[in-house]
Amino acid sequence: MDEITLKIEPTNNPAIIKFETNVFLTEHRSYEFKNIDEAKNSPLAQQLFYLPFVKTVFISGNFIGIERYNIVAWEDVQDEVANQIGEYLSSGGKAVIEEAVGNTKKVPVTVYAESTPNPSVMKFVANKLLVAQAYEFKNIDDARFAPLAKVLFDFSFVKEVFMDENYISVTKYEIADWNEITMPVREAITEHLADGKEVVTKDAVPITSAKATGSDEGNASYENLSDTSQQIIAILDEYVKPAVASDGGNIMFESYDESSKVVKVILQGACSGCPSSTFTLKNGIETMLKNMLHDKVNEVVAINA
User: Measured between alpha carbons, how far is residue 146 from residues 11, 62, 143, 151, 152 in Å?
Assistant: First the structure.
């Protein structure tokens, strides 16, 4: 058996952390467990639920996502959890005992549609975690490692797809009317999830790994950023991201220029191209950063993803 290695990866949700492995844990299916009773076919999840702070366990492809209760902070326990998972897998323990494909049962799932401030975008919300990190697909070629996004691009009116946590934001072409297309899109998502099919594969690249640090290469670590850049990211994460996520969008820090005091952010999902995004940017985000960071920020500029 290959030597098991684990990499700890944060996500957009501070309550959820991802443990990536160098081996496949499941075959073409994703699993979510809310408690130890639901985890009957996952010895690994059962073991994790003995930790009092574990709220939800998500296993898919080559990673385990864990949502915690607020009684602890991840930085205090993540290394211990990683060691426990590594030791379990290295000893030959099974992450999930999967049924044969022919015996796979439908998974109960609910999906509802929710309008957003962007008239071109509809948000489809599921009653389960779909992805541990955010993904954005501009076309079907981008979606080659995202089976659910490929299904959605089969609709001729689908322009872009954005996924984060338990929702999918779908951008349509202007020729289509949401009154006519919402139901077939919702049914396609529901059927895909109910069949237990993958949302994204292990090869899909989350958008947070591309330009989360504001460097040209996207490889600089958070610790290498200036103090002001780190403060800006903290403010965006705490005060802005939850609000834009509720509208089916996302905002990412791109860069901060200390000489011009200009902050650049990337708008994604429903926020990208939204008619109200300029108002929100100038009267919301820019004002907030100026008030909280005083003379360190002159302007906030948005880049539509």
Answer: 18, 15, 5, 9, 10
Mean model confidence pLDDT for the chain: 82
Q: How many CB atoms lie within 10 A of CB 190?
A: 16
The token pair at 290 is 């100026």
What tens digit of pLDDT does each residue of 180-216 get?
999 999 999 999 988 888 899 878 888 753 344 333 3
Nearest to 82 by CA among 30, 133, 10, 130: 10
Alpha-carbon torsion angle 238, 121, 115, 31, nearest 10: -70
The answer to whether 304 and 273 have CB atoms below 8 angstroms apart is yes
pLDDT tens sequence across 73-128: 999 999 999 999 999 998 888 888 876 444 455 667 889 998 888 889 999 998 88
- Which two tokens mark 103? 């015996």
Cα separation, 238 vs 26, in Å, equals 33
Classify strands 6-10 and 16-21 as parallel, antiparallel or unpaired: antiparallel
How far is residue 73's CA from residue 153's CA, in Å, rounded to a whole number? Answer: 39
51 backbone φψ class: left, alpha, beta (φ>0; ψ -120 to 50)? beta
